[in-house]
Amino acid sequence: MVKHGWVCLSLACVVFGTASAQAAERPLAAAIRSAAKAARPAVVSIEAKHPQAIGRLPRLRGVPVPPNAQPPNPLQPQPPNQGRRERRWEFHWPPRGNQPQAVPFGPDGIIQALGLPQTGGRGTGVLLQVAGERGLVGTSSALVAGAQQVTVRLADGRTLTAKVLGTHTFTGTACLEIRGPNLAAIKPSKAGAAQVGAPVLAIGGPRSGGAVTLGIVSATDRPGTGDLAGAKLLLTDAFVPDTMAGAPVVNLRGEMLGMALPRPPGQRGVRDLTAVMPTHVVAATIAELAAKGKVARGWLGIQFQPLPAEVRQQLGIEHGVQVARVLEGQPAALAGIQDGDILLELAGAKATDVAAFRAIVGTTTPGTRVPVKLLRGDQEMTLHVTLGEQKAEGIGAPALPRGGEKAGLGLTLQPLTPELAAQFGFEGDRGLVVTAVEARSPATKGRPNPIQRGDLIKEVARNPVATVAGAKKALAQAIAAKAKSVLLLVRSGQGTRYIVVDLAQ
Question: Exposure pattern of 8-46 as b/e (b: 16+ CB <10 Å)?
Answer without folding.
Answer: eeeeeeeeeeeeeeeeeeeeeeebeeebbebbbbbbbbb
